[in-house]
Design goal:
Blueprint lengths: L3 E5 L3 H14 L4 E6 L3 E2 L2 H8 L10 E2 L8 E5 L2 E5 L4 E4 L2 E4 L2 E4 L4 E3 L6 H4 L1 E2 L3 H12 L5 E6 L9 H15 L7 E5 L10 H13 L2 E4 L4 E5 L4 E4 L4 E3 L2 E5 L1 E3 L2 H5 L8 E2 L12 E3 L4 E2 L6 H20 L10 E7 L5 E7 L6 E8 L3 H16 L10
Helix pairs in contact: 1-8, 2-4
Bound molecules: flavin-adenine dinucleotide.
Flavin-adenine dinucleotide binds next to helix 1, strand 2, helix 2, helix 8 and strand 23.
């Protein structure tokens, strides 16, 4: 009888694990992929929709399109996980597996930033980013604060990209002179492992008059006064607040008792949890790398290859290397590329760009994933 792998969550990690296992076994392994949503949206596509480069329907990749050998997609909310029994309960029924890959990502705690729901806008969820498209289109200029409340948060370059894309948008609309942009981040520099990328971003912030507030975070928003209170005791007035909400694991992971200090502990080289044949990858796991899709997919690839070896009775020699490549928007369609290695001594990052030419590489990154995960072509974000 063929073995069954339950893949929990169909984001970067779940889709990569599913694709690798389906290709490797060509129908001789049962893979049940479970997600509560209709389809996958890249994190960077949220910014593309928010800044009106494309539309919400063009960035949604429907799970109903997945037709891989051995794979069943179940659209359901996972309500309980038993890591010992490798049993999960969902709104679409219960499932038992021989292996679990937990790839449920990170959720947001909006109330973790007092005042955010009343006075600001988060731009990290699909709903939040998509709703901002109209809000930005009707913005008439004023003080904009882009703020983070606490780490870890997904895609550390994304708030810097947001500041630069906003700058470009306000310039295009002729309202940059009547606006200010402030960026508040709990890091000493925008991309800590890459001094070169950070220097390029800081120089661009200076050139474009974006106020950089390092080493502090936004604690709360005062909805009446319309000021953001920062951890260093200062305040920033805002007409428009764009926030990165506090991140946490989805509630089902917490109620399953899988966390230590808020995240699922794993062996960072094998992605194994302390339960046999149960792996955790991506944003929900404490791996020691940033929360980003490029890291989630490589972790998932390692977990999938180790599961494949276990199923075949081979030795499990695949190890995660902590490497990733990030594409950073500098505004005006210019892209910088940061390559980071986390497990070879101190984290190190190299930087290339920014330039218009590198946009083609970012485009190919998205297109290649959709080809691999959904077996179809995709014309990634293009200006409407
Ligand atoms: C604005 C923004 C820009 C970004 N840009 C980039 C970028 O350029 N490059 C990059 O590498 N990363 C980027 N990221 C980060 C990236 O999106 C995430 O780090 C990545 O998606 C994490 O992958 P994952 O598989 O761990 O989780 P996810 O991709 O979040 O997938 C988790 C899945 O689990 C499902 N799920 C959760 N709970 C349940 C449940 N109880 N039942 C059923 N299903 C459930 C969710 O619906 C989701 O589909 C960006 C993020 C943001 C917000």
């Amino acid at each position: 009888m063929s073995k069954r792998v339950l893949v929990l969550g169909a984001g970067f990690g779940g889709l990569e694990a599913t694709s690798i296992l389906a290709e490797e076994f060509d129908g001789d392994l049962e893979i049940v992929l479970i997600d509560s949503t209709e389809g996958f949206v890249f994190g960077f596509s949220k910014l593309d929709v928010m800044f009106a480069r494309t539309s919400a329907d063009r960035v949604l990749h429907r799970y109903s399109d997945i037709a891989k050998p051995g794979v069943t997609f179940v659209r359901a909310e996972i309500t309980a996980i038993d890591a010992v029994a490798k049993h999960v309960e969902t709104t679409g029924g219960a499932f038992d597996g021989d292996f679990l890959v937990i790839a449920l990502g990170a959720d947001y705690d909006i109330s973790g930033t007092p005042g955010l729901a009343e006075a600001g806008h988060e731009f990290y969820s699909e709903a939040g980013a998509f709703a901002l498209r109209d809000i930005l289109a009707s913005f008439e200029g004023g003080d904009v604060v882009i703020g983070i409340t606490s780490g870890p948060f997904k895609c550390p370059p994304a708030p810097s990209e947001t500041a630069l894309m906003l700058d470009a948008m306000l310039r295009d609309r002729g309202i940059r002179d009547s606006s200010t942009i402030s960026l508040v981040m709990p890091f000493p520099r925008p991309i800590p492992p890459s001094p070169d990328a950070s220097s390029a971003l800081l120089a661009t912030f200076e050139e474009r008059d974006i106020a950089w507030h390092p080493d502090t975070s936004v604690r709360s928003l005062d909805a009446d006064e319309r000021v953001a209170h920062l951890g260093d005791g200062s305040t920033l007035p805002f007409d428009l607040y764009l926030g990165v909400p506090v991140h946490r694991v989805p509630a089902v992971i917490e109620s399953a008792g899988l966390t230590v200090d808020g995240w699922i502990p794993v062996d960072s080289r094998t992605l194994e949890t302390s339960w046999p044949d149960v792996y955790a990858v991506g944003d929900c796991a404490a791996v020691g790398t940033p929360r980003a899709g490029v890291f989630a997919e490589r972790q998932a690839a390692t977990a999938a290859r180790r599961i494949a070896a276990r199923v075949r009775g081979d030795s499990e020699d695949s190890l995660y290397d902590g490497r990733g490549v990030c594409y950073v928007e500098f505004g005006g369609d210019e892209i910088g590329i940061v390559e980071v290695a986390f497990f070879d001594g101190r984290p190190r990052g190299s930087f290339e760009g920014p330039s218009l030419d590198l946009a083609a590489q970012k485009h190919e990154f998205g297109v290649s994933r959709i080809r691999r995960w959904f077996d179809r072509d995709w014309a990634a974000a293009v200006a409407e």
